[in-house]
Q: What sequence folds into this?
């Protein structure tokens, strides 16, 4: 039977001022999914590597499995699928681990059927998978992982996403300290209401970030990458966050913040060499707190998940 | 002595989802200011027409006067100026009346000195004039009146404005019902804090509006022109607002909202004929409530205030 491999990238949700509505994809790391069609119905997770045995092997509990089941049902297929998942993204890291698995699986299965659905049409299936993984069908990781680049999720009723042209000179540093935060814990610390003046600051900044990305105007991007809503609260869950952020900016990053709900820290820079320097500096900073960390430096991924030979 | 006339356009602040950070300029109406340099120091308001005698003639209490005083001081001039102001904008209408007078005055006086300052550099003087007129040095009317087009005021500490390219097919209808709201009253009804979910909706929409304007994507502009923060509260001060808005959309407008703090209603449309039809429909709607109204239909003004022969 036909078999195909696809990769889907890690993503940064929120992007400081874009809490709950914004995300972007990076080149590395990326989850790998290999899908083989089967003549009998049903989706089976055949193997998962790289997860330390922590991910569920039952298809209906696994984001890749759920996404493929939803896809097959939507096109009325009577075939089934076997899934092999090579996790390259750390779990619970705030890098969109669950999203990358479902995005890769969807791009693979769609390809096996000669791409009957567009990337936008695959989104709802990936969102259903997010519901399984995180408890809510949010799109701020799955949309950039599928579409690539910076993606605005304007709203959900109905789903309204807009991809923003990727500026040419933008590099991301992801530093993942080895401590685990649960998304639910990160959400729980947020408040149900916010001061009007903070809200105005935040929407001035997200508008500024979007204008900066689209012009592009790197100075405006830099001035806009501030979060007065989630970061002041969530950063308390990340040891030494203030120093980490200051170190990133001191090394030349445009901005630095919490990736998704953390604990991964993202920084954006206008040169690869700066992004690398920032990575090393942040890793040392975590080391000084006896925390190991992984560093990923890459361009913005403009194409999203992709099929590989 | 040298004399010059300048026009500065009416402006729509807030633009639904851009509360306190966004505004745009229209072609009509526009205030006219004639400035004559004098050999003796001091700024004198020589004449004001069109205000029904309501504007202060003392230069330091008048937005045009304050702006010119600040300009002359900044360039260290030992000359003075005489100002004639022909008000074309209704006062207290939410169309940026005070801003148009100071913007026109600044562009005129700057021209008389061979433009030593850029439009951006004139902004702080116009903001000082706003402080006299409205009690706060906000920029969401003066920035678009000086710069033209759609302008983001990302923040004030320090002032950070970004002009957004004007989409080719965008027309504005302003309908000014003859009832007066004081800006202070309109601000007073707003709450000091807002639900997080409303804030997220609002910043999704302002980001969507900016992306829509810049692409341009008129559908996205339409879907983004919603205000869940100020409009639900302020609209209570405008009789029949819900019907007015529904009538605007029914006649084909992309969106409709309160201009600034009201009572003027703005609508945006992709064709001049639609913008005209919307204007007539809204005027009739107000008429059915025994309210007279003025209607202004025009393109977006992309150049801002300008000197005329």
A:
């Amino acid at each position: 039977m036909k078999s195909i491999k696809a990769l889907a990238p890690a993503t940064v949700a929120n992007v400081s001022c874009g809490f709950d509505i914004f995300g972007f994809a990076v080149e590395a790391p990326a989850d790998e999914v290999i899908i083989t069609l089967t003549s009998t119905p049903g989706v089976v997770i055949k193997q998962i590597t790289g997860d330390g045995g922590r991910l569920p092997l039952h298809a209906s509990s696994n984001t890749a499995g759920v996404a493929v089941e939803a896809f097959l049902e939507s096109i009325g297929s009577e075939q089934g699928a076997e899934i092999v998942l090579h996790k390259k993204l750390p779990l619970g890291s705030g890098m969109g681990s669950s999203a990358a698995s479902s995005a890769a699986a969807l791009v693979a299965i769609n390809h096996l059927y000669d791409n009957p659905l567009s990337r936008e049409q695959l989104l709802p299936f990936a969102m259903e998978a997010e519901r399984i993984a995180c408890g809510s069908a949010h799109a701020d990781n799955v949309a950039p992982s599928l579409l690539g680049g910076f993606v605005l999720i304007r709203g959900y009723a109905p789903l309204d996403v807009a991809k923003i042209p990727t500026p040419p000179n933008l590099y991301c540093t992801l530093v993942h300290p080895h401590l685990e935060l649960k998304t639910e814990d990160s959400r729980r610390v947020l408040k149900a209401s916010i001061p009007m003046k903070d809200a105005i600051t935040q929407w001035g900044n997200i508008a500024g970030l979007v204008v900066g990305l689209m012009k592009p105007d790197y100075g405006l991007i830099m001035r806009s990458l501030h979060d007065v809503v989630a970061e002041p609260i969530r950063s308390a869950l990340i040891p030494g966050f203030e120093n980490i952020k200051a170190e990133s900016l001191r090394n030349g990053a445009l901005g630095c913040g919490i990736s998704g709900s953390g604990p991964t820290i993202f920084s954006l820079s206008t040169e690869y060499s700066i992004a690398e320097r920032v990575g090393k500096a942040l890793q040392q900073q975590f080391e000084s707190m006896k925390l190991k960390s992984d560093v990923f430096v890459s361009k913005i991924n403009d194409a999203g998940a992709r099929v590989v030979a």
